[in-house]
Structure formats: C-alpha cells, structure tokens
Automatic annotation (TrEMBL):
Residues 226-379 form the Oxidoreductase molybdopterin-binding domain. This is Oxidoreductase. Residues 1-26 form the signal peptide. InterPro entries: Ig_E-set, OxRdtase_Mopterin-bd_dom, OxRdtase_Mopterin-bd_sf. Residues 180-207 are annotated as: Disordered. Keywords: Membrane, Signal, Transmembrane, Transmembrane helix. PANTHER family: SULFITE OXIDASE, MITOCHONDRIAL, SULFITE REDUCTASE. The chain crosses the membrane at residues 66-84, 91-110, 116-137, 157-174. It comes from the Bacteria. It holds the Pfam family Oxidored_molyb.
Length: 506
C-alpha cells in the first residue's frame, strides 16, 4: 500500500517537474505553447458551442482558470496512474510520459498561429518527466519503505520539498510567462499617442445619465484567448487582401495617420442572456473600414469580410453591412478601432487594433487584435463560431433590460424609480414600456440617444403597493415593431424575450 502511494506520488511529482520546466521554456519561446495552455486551448476549440455557452453563462470570466485547473487535475490523475504502472513495469513510465508529451506537442502545433518551435516546451516536459520518473522509481529490490531510512533522508520529506519547489517553479513560470509578454505590450501601449479625431463624436446630449458610457474597467470581455494576445505595435501590421484589386498593408503608425472617426457605439455579445451583462457602450476612435475597403477595391461577389486576429481567431462580417454602415443618418460607420474611451485600446479589448461593426454581435463583426482583413465569400469560408453552429448573419436583436431595482430587491412602498436601457441598433428606439404584474403596459420616459447605434436609457416612476410584484420591460423600435416576448436561447443567433424582475414591497 505504502509502495503504491509512493509510486502515484512519484508520478505526480515527475509530471509536475516536467510541466513546470516546459512552462518556463514556453515563457521564452511563446507563452501559448506551454503544454497546459496548449491543451486547454485545444479543449476550448473542441468544445461544442452549447457547452461553451453554458460555461460562459455559469462561470463567466472564471471559465478559463477553471478549464486550466481541470487540465492540471486530469494530468495529475493520469500521472499518478503512470507512476503506479511504472512501479510494475519500468517501460510503462517513459511510454506514458511520451504519450502525454505527444498530446502536448499536438496541441501546441495545432494552434492557429503555431510554428515548429512551439513543439519544444511539450518535448522538454516529456523528457524531463521521464528522466525524473526513472530516477525516482528505483529498480525492484530497493527498500520501498521510507521509515527504514534515517530522518534526514526521509523520502517523503524529500519529495514534499521537491513538490513545493515544483509548485514554486510552476507558479513563477506561469506568472513570469504572462508578465514578460504583458510588460512588453503594456510598454508598447504606454508609448501610443492617439491622434485627435478628424470627426469628433458630438457631445452627449443633456439628459443622458451617468452609466451611459461603460468604463474600460467595467466593459465586459468575451474571447477564446486563454492568454490574452500581447502585441508589440512595432511588429504589428494590418493587411487587406483576398478578393481585392489592390491589396495593401499598414503599419500602426500609418494607421494612426488615417482620418480618425470618434463615435459612441454599443457592443453586444450573442451569448448575452435576456437581462444579461455582456453589453456595453464606449466612445470608440478609429478608421473607417469602408474607406480602407474602397482603397483596396473590393471585387464583385466578395460578400464576406474575414477578419483574422494575431491569435488566429476568424470573424466573418457581411461586406454590404460594412459598406452601408454610417450611410443612413444616425448610424455609425464600421471602424478599425485604436481607441476606447479616450485611451488606446486596453490589452484585453484588442490592443493595438480591433474591428467594430455596430448592430452586429461581436463574434460576427468586432475582431480584437486584428491583423488581417481578407475579402472572401460566405460560400467559401466559415468563420470560427459559424463552424460551431452559430449563425453567419448576426444582426443584434432589439432588446431591453431593467437595471434598477435589482432582482429580489426589498423596497419601501411608495415612489420607486425603475430604470434601465433598451437598444435597437441601426433603427433606434421609439418607446419603452413597463408592465407591473398583469397590468397594462405603460410608457417609460426615454433619455436622449446620441445616435441610432447606442442603447437608450429609460426611467419609469412606479407607485409601489405592498406585496410581491414582477416588473417587465419591452422596447419598441422606430419602425413600430415591438420587441418579441418569445423566449429564445442565445444559440445560434441571440436571445429574445422580455426581461423581468421580481421584487417585494413592504
Ligand atoms: N480575436 C478575437 N476577437 C473577438 C473575440 C475573440 O474571441 N477573439 N470574441 C468576440 C466576441 S464573441 C465578442 S462579444 C467581442 C467582445 O469584445 P470585448 O471583449 O472587447 O467586449 O469580441 C469579439 N472579438
Ligand atoms: Mo460574443
């Protein structure tokens, strides 16, 4: 029994030594080639869209740490079994470690941006783990019982020390990894001076309340990146190619010299549930994408713009949507953004540049860390989320949300201010209506909206009587269409239904 435990322990410690060594090597080569990250990223790609949706909904921003923890736990379990097997047959150790190494190599090499060097960390991990295992598991006949040894050389104390050291190295490796790349990118971002807009956003109309603009710190973040791409602007370029007459490439400095448009636009995630938090409004600064496309000369039939990020993400947007954007008064042109709320784009939100297409869910119009724009067709290419079953065409659905009072709030009877937001991008909101319990729908008061592509704030004065009540909201767009109350899940093209909040009045 002792011996079996010892073998499991040895397996886990050896795997830990191997993986942390690989992680340190990855810090030098490419943070994303670390075996744990690479396997995690491969898992993300292989996960069905519905499961991923569920993960984002239930675990939110913690979905990735949880996934990485899962990979580590699974690896530890397999390593323990390998230790056990190696104690019986010595060859089982190296064979098993080699198999794990092969998985790591495969994961690293199948990353969209992989180069051959990315195989090195997993190879190093496997080699180090194997060597450690062979050293620790002495040939049969060696005294298996730790208690027979003098105190100072107590095997368990020794192994405990090793385990601690390994944990330290792993932690240092993981944080060092992201720190090294993160610092370089942060320095690069600190050095950016944003140009003044050639076309500034009109000042927000009076009557717009605080909270209209979402701060960069509070802005939701949704992406598939396990390690946020850290880009150095000096090595970054934006290429426009594919079905165009005049492909071209811009450096970051060249992009900054283009005419700059500033505008307020609301961005939505398709995974947002009715009433959910994955929506925000910012003041964006960027270059008209339609202008760049006209310069390149889009060829007939190129109905899809495929945007590629530095981490290999692909996002497909209808060419017509981009070319038409901003042509109807009140709508805002699609941009290649470099600024968000008077700052260079935050690293998490796509530094140094991202696409932004108002009125289209983020997965189909707003590629972060963009580096390439390829003119293509919907027939020829399915973007990342489309391959996973999401709709290729993804206009944002008209919706509304109650922000105050919060769910299950306890309120004093009398005047209660109910408040929230509503949006019908590209069309605009003409009314917001509130229903208390089964009463008639009554109009809320709208705050002014700066343009048709932002959300609108609304308030409703409610004379609350004691008891339990349900408040419900729905929006009406400027064509007179009432937001549908029919419930739909976010998959495959956005949630629908009326947001409601239950409260108790005393
Ligand atoms: N490169 C890249 N761009 C991306 C994504 C991504 O995973 N990778 N996610 C998209 C999705 S689903 C949304 S909703 C928006 C979110 O942008 P934000 O994180 O700045 O809020 O970015 C889009 N652009
Ligand atoms: Mo999204």
């Amino acid at each position: 029994m002792r011996r079996a435990l010892w073998s499991c322990y040895a397996g886990v410690v050896c795997a830990a030594i191997g993986v942390s060594t690989g992680q340190v090597v990855a810090a030098v080569i490419n943070p994303e080639s670390g075996p744990v990250y690479a396997v995690g990223a491969m898992t993300v790609d292989a996960t069905p869209a519905r499961v991923k949706d569920f993960a984002v909904r239930t675990a939110g921003t913690y979905d990735k740490p949880l996934l990485l923890a899962g990979v580590v736990v699974l690896l530890a379990a397999v390593a323990a079994l390998l230790g056990l097997a190696a104690a019986q047959r010595r060859w089982a150790g190296p064979a098993g470690m080699a198999a794990l190494g092969a998985i790591g190599v495969a994961a690293a090499l199948t990353r969209p941006s992989a180069s051959l060097a990315d195989a090195v960390p997993a190879l190093v991990s496997a080699a180090v783990a194997t060597a450690a295992l062979l050293l620790m598991l002495r040939p049969p006949g060696a005294p298996p019982d730790a208690s027979q040894r003098p105190r100072l050389l107590d095997r368990r104390a020794f192994v405990g020390g090793v385990a601690l050291a390994v944990a330290g190295v792993a932690a240092a490796g993981a944080t060092g990894t992201s720190r090294v790349a993160g610092r370089a990118a942060a320095r690069s971002r600190d050095g950016v001076r944003l140009p003044r807009p050639t076309r500034p956003a009109p000042a927000l109309p009076t009557g717009v309340e605080p909270g209209f603009v979402t701060s960069n710190a509070d802005f939701y973040r949704v992406d598939t990146a396990l390690t946020v791409p850290r880009v150095d602007v000096d090595r970054w370029t934006l290429t426009v190619r594919g079905m165009v007459d005049r492909p071209f490439e811009l450096s970051f400095d060249e992009l900054l010299r283009e005419p700059m448009i500033e505008q307020y636009v609301t961005l939505n995630c398709v995974s947002n549930e009715v009433g959910g938090p994955y929506i925000g409004t910012a003041k964006w600064l960027g270059v008209s994408l339609a202008e760049l496309l006209r310069r390149a000369g889009v060829q007939a039939g190129a109905d899809q713009i495929v945007a590629r990020s530095v981490d290999g993400m692909t996002i497909g947007t209808p060419t017509a949507t981009v070319l038409d954007s901003g042509t109807t008064p009140g709508t805002q042109p699609a941009l290649i953004c470099v600024g968000m709320n008077d700052e260079p784009l935050p690293l998490d939100h796509g530094f140094p540049a991202r696409m932004l297409t108002s009125g289209v869910y983020g997965y189909a119009g707003s590629c972060k860390w963009i580096t390439e724009i390829e003119l293509s067709t919907f027939g020829d290419f399915d973007a990342y989320w489309v391959r996973r079953g999401y709709a290729a065409q993804a206009p944002v659905k008209t919706s509304s949300r109650i922000d105050r009072p919060g769910p299950f709030a306890r309120l004093a009877a009398g005047r209660v201010v109910v408040a929230g937001v509503a949006w019908a991008q590209g069309t605009g909101i003409s009314a917001v209506e509130i229903q208390v319990d089964d009463d008639a729908w009554r109009p809320a008061t709208l705050r002014p909206e700066p343009n048709l592509d932002t959300w609108v704030q609304w308030t409703y004065l409610w004379q609350a009587a004691p008891g339990s009540h349900t408040l419900r909201v729905r929006a009406v767009d400027r064509t007179g269409t009432v937001q549908t109350g029919e419930r739909a899940q976010p998959f495959p093209n956005g949630a629908t239904g009326w947001h409601s909040v239950a409260v108790t009045v005393t």
